[in-house]
């Protein structure tokens, strides 16, 4: 067995997260190890946030994001809040600058314990999302599921928050839609060459909406931070809301602000569950014993 790496099992509004401490190591969390950890009910997770030593000048850490199917993700809002909480407990710092494959982002823990993450700028170009074919206006694209003459979900807004998102607008309760059935079909639809996160959104006020998300590479989750950002910017962009909204996901509310400088800032909680050590090559793991640092 390789030298074990420390991890903390955490969650961001029920989005199951493992924060893996890969600092000072040359190895990476392998896809097979992620799949093994996800299959174990005790360590079941939606994303692993692997925290590495910094690669770029002016950043504190490089963070890799791994979905439960072993694929890589470019953004994970709830996971970033968990990383901030884990690091702030260790370092007594409250601000961090991270590098991810999607770029550099900064994050801050507030005195009330809530954490804000600057999720960067949304991208609306069809090649940036990416889509398989040209759509000049990505506020609403032609795509539907269900019977041709009576689609269940149709005409989503599409956007990249570093990762690809499609947001389907509905009038009623988001829980009445069979996302477990339609999510995988839409995630793998040929219009999304890199797959997509699929969200159903119901705007309830100029500053509020409820969403549910089928995550690319992880399936149905209780929360998806980048999807909350994607839904918020898409709602503002289509005139449904203003630029500051409370997005309620199954796990609870997230505050999303699309600032005038085009950056999207997400604020919400993070929660520690337990710690352990694992083998990044195989996913074998052991729980940290109480009282052992
Ligand atoms: N849970 C995340 C999003 C995770 C990444 C996603 N599954 C993808 O592959 O794009 C969040 O909180 O943003």
Automatic annotation (TrEMBL):
It is found in: Cytoplasm. GO terms for molecular function: diaminopimelate epimerase activity. Substrate binds at residues 15, 47, 67, 77-78, 163, 197, 215-216, 225-226. InterPro entries: DAP_epimerase_AS, DAP_epimerase_DapF. It catalyses: (2S,6S)-2,6-diaminopimelate = meso-2,6-diaminopimelate. Its main location: cytoplasm. Keywords: Amino-acid biosynthesis, Cytoplasm, Isomerase, Lysine biosynthesis. Its EC number is 5.1.1.7. Pfam families: DAP_epimerase. The record marks 165, 215 as: Could be important to modulate the pK values of the two catalytic cysteine residues. Pathway: Amino-acid biosynthesis; L-lysine biosynthesis via DAP pathway; DL-2,6-diaminopimelate from LL-2,6-diaminopimelate: step 1/1. The active site is at 76, 76 (proton donor), 224 (proton acceptor). Belongs to the diaminopimelate epimerase family. Catalyzes the stereoinversion of LL-2,6-diaminopimelate (L,L-DAP) to meso-diaminopimelate (meso-DAP), a precursor of L-lysine and an essential component of the bacterial peptidoglycan. PANTHER family: DIAMINOPIMELATE EPIMERASE, DIAMINOPIMELATE EPIMERASE, CHLOROPLASTIC. Homodimer. This is Diaminopimelate epimerase. It comes from Chelativorans salis.
């Amino acid at each position: 067995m390789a030298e074990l790496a420390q991890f903390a099992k955490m969650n961001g509004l029920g989005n199951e997260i493992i924060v893996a401490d890969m600092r000072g190591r040359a190895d990476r969390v392998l896809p097979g190890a992620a799949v093994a950890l996800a299959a174990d009910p005790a360590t079941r997770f939606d994303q692993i946030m692997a925290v590495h030593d910094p690669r770029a000048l002016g950043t504190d850490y490089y963070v890799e994001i791994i979905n439960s199917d072993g694929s890589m993700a470019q953004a994970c809002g709830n996971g970033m809040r968990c990383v901030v909480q884990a690091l702030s407990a260790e370092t007594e710092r409250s601000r961090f600058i991270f590098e991810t494959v999607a770029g550099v982002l900064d994050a801050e823990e507030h005195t009330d314990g809530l954490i804000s993450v600057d999720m960067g700028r949304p991208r609306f170009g069809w090649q940036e999302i990416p889509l398989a074919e040209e759509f000049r206006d990505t506020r609403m694209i032609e795509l539907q599921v269900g019977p041709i003459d009576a689609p269940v979900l149709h005409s989503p807004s599409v956007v990249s928050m570093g990762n690809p998102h499609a947001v389907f607008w509905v009038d009623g309760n988001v829980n009445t839609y069979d996302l477990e059935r339609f999510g995988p079909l839409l995630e793998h639809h040929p219009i999304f060459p890199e797959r997509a996160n699929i969200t159903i959104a119901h705007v309830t006020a100029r500053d509020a909406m409820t969403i549910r998300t089928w995550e690319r590479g992880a399936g149905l989750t209780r929360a998806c931070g980048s999807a909350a950002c994607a839904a918020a910017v898409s709602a503002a962009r289509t005139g449904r809301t203003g630029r500051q909204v409370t997005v309620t996901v199954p796990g609870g509310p997230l505050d999303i602000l699309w600032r005038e400088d085009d950056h999207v800032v997400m604020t919400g909680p993070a929660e520690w569950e337990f710690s352990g050590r694992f083998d990044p090559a195989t996913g074998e793991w052991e729980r940290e014993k109480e009282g052992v640092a």
